[in-house]
Amino acid sequence: MTIQTVTDPALVGHKFARLHRMRAAGFPVPDLITVPATAFDAAWQEVDPGDGPDRWARARDALRAAPVPAGILDEVGARFGPDAVFAVRACAVASTVDGGGGEDGADPFAGMSDSFLYVPADRVAERIAACWASAFTARAVAYRQLRGLDPARTRIAVGVQLMVPGTRSFVAFTRDPRDGARRTVIAAAHGIGEGVVQEKADVDHFHVAGPTVTADLVRKERMVGPPDGSGDLALLPVPAGLAAAPVLDDRTARAVAALAARAEAFFGGPQDIEGTITADGVLHLVQARPMVLPAGPPVYWANHNITESYPGISGALTFSQAQEFYRRAFGDLYHRMGVPARTVDANRHHLEQLVAHLDGRVYYRLGAWHALHGQLPVFDLVRDVWQDGMGVTGEARPPVTRPRRRAWLALPGTLLRATRHPRRAAGFLRWWDGVMDESGDLSGRTPHQLVAAYRELWAAVSVRWGVTLTNSIYGLLAVKVLMRLLDRWAGGKGLFTGLLTGGPANRSLESVRAAVALAELIAADPGLRAAVEAGERPREVWHDISTGRHGAPLAEAVAGYLRRYSDRALHDLKLEQPTPRQQPWLLLEVLRPYVIQGRTVEALLEAERLAVHQTAGELAARCPGRLRRTALRTLSRYVRFIARVREDTRFCRTQLYGLSRDILWRLGADLHTTGHLDDPLDIRDLTVAEVLGAYDGTLPCAALRDLAAARRRERLLAETRPARPGLLRTPATGPLRDALSSALEVTAVTAVTAEPAAGGVLTGLGSAPGVVRAPARLVLDPAVAPETCRDAILVARETDPGWLFLMMAAKGLVVERGTLLSHTAITGRLLGVPTVVAVPDATSRIPDGALIELDGTAGTVRILKESA
Predict the structure, then answer these.
(1) Which domain holds residue 372?
(2) pTM
(3) Is 474 found in the same domain as 361?
(4) Residue ranges of the PEP-utilising enzyme mobile domain (predicted)?
(5) Other CB atoms closer than 10 Å to residue 578's CB: what's the count?
(6) Cystine design at 868: which of 308, 359, 527, 851 (Cβ 3.0–4.6 Å)?
(7) 3-state helix, strand and coil shares in percent for the chain, rounded to the nearest 5
(8) Do 5 and 150 share a domain, yes or no?
(9) Residue 136 is part of a domain; what is its CATH number?
(10) Sheet holding 85-93, edge to edge
(11) What is the pLDDT of residues 613-668, one digit of tens each?
């Protein structure tokens, strides 16, 4: 019997048809002969398995004993000779009757049939028959029956392929099998391919995106080699010299990726290929099949730094306000940073997705951020810093596939815009102060006037607020340059935090100083001081202060404070939380810790002056060149300016939300009065659009009471569930609620964090200079007594402006999240409190009460004793 080389899947199956086609096209496929399914059909006709539960076992035995046509063996011997060694593999072929069961075709049947490696020529016939018999293994029969196919209609083709003596093997996917992204993923191991496919060997993974190769390496101890005396594949130790080195160097990884890409282009779709590499470094391709891609790339979510603004559970009102802010403000940002209007318009759907509401908590949708920020011409220059600040790690960080030349070409235009930024920032602050002055007292406005005021306010945000966000882009660029110059000229980045200390106070710090000044006035009145420290009858105490019973100067001072700072409070971006604007007596809770601590404005100023003086001396010692010192001071002044604008505009955002809260709460009161809500604060469970729509005809549903009640039930239920990780991955299949409902459907992305070094040292970003040693005070919720932080080092996940009274009581700050320009870092510098941010897992790795030493310059936290 003569075997012809055929590429018809109906005769040889998809697997062998592809190999024949690729070999004919010049791919490095080892020579092979295929025994067509017609040979199996002839053998199967001679088998009578009978009936009963053991019929398939009898069929296997009969096929193992079936004779292989002599013509097949003659052709194998004639083409390869008597000393050749083969891989003999089975492939299910689609039935001519039911069309099912074809391997690697439209209806995969892969992995159900047997394969044999290192087969000598004198055992080829035996192994062909064994491949036939594998059609009726218990797993193959059960699988076909599960899919409604008749096992008796199975057909098998067999490939007899020259065995290549590979020393390394690989499996490569032309798309990332996790999310379908355009990157080649390679799994490689020493030894033969079964070590990779069957996961018996120690495997390195390589990710190839363009010219970039990244690797996930393991220490290798096991590999799969040729058969031992028993005829089975052997599990062998990896030679010592290869244990720590990567299986593939970058050049070989790129060659494998190029071979996979060539297969994808040849077949016109993503491919999964297997191959081996011989000792001379030559690649051999032994299999290619279509990839089964996921329904869509997974979706990544993060709340690493947004929790400082929206901690814990947020109601529908707060979330919808956040969504409105991000949509409008970032739309203006992209316009201001030179993104073409047509590009912004094409990505407006992403603007709606920047934030999400998952289990009652606010998250970023990272895909939307990457898509939008990727349009910024200079984004690639600061991508790593931005991702660090967002807490984006591991697989959630998409590879950079485009050259950075685009970003460098855009840099001059960006720098030109940066020179105009101080003037534009000043103009923004003047405009906003005018808005606040004109807003006045809202108590006399009708509901429709309030709705109009809200819409007018946020329309202005759409064309104004981008200035506050361009500030961050310029800041990231300036910080990178300053850090690099400090490395070159001053022996490291240690001076960075000191150089950012000093300069004019920002609005957040001015609010602190104003509060401390009020606390000093209160402390001067022994009776009032005792009442405030006791924290009892706050409404009565407030009434006495505001009506002048403790003196006109104090009454005027608190009235002035409220006019400017009444929107500042703990969690002041959460619209369900009251602030002193709604409940003025809450101001006493802000002042109480300052009164107890005995803080003074002069002490704050003196601490800042001392830090500035120490930095100046250290800079002179470490950077003796006058011109270089001048350059460093000039650049640091710009970074300080950026930091001040950041805090100033964050304070403006607090006021924006405060003004919006005032409008919405008043509308909630009206909806309650008119019988649409059971309680004025039920608006916390309505969206902004629903509250406004109740008045201007844009609400499709009038049953606000029922809607609020349903959302309230969901919110209360969410409060009983534990918080999810700060970085999540969900599949892009079905409704998101379904994915979130099962732990199997939502996978926490594991961030790679370094373990403490010898001596219990944790590292982060030094953000405010100074060295301090004190007990750790672990704070996960700022609703704790400030006195518990006195003479301690505050350890938290993140902070927001509402934490100021705790931060002022502490001797140092250690925070898991944040950047050098985050609120924690800026406040630490302005308060003169040594600070380290971005310390991975600080709240779980530093025991509460442990004696620790914090170095705010070096960015280290040393655990001295587990308990102080």
Answers:
(1) 296-402+722-751
(2) 0.66
(3) no
(4) 791-859
(5) 14
(6) 851
(7) 50, 15, 35
(8) yes
(9) 3.30.1490.20
(10) 32-35, 155-162, 85-93, 115-120
(11) 888 888 888 888 889 989 998 998 998 899 899 989 999 999 999 999 999 999 99
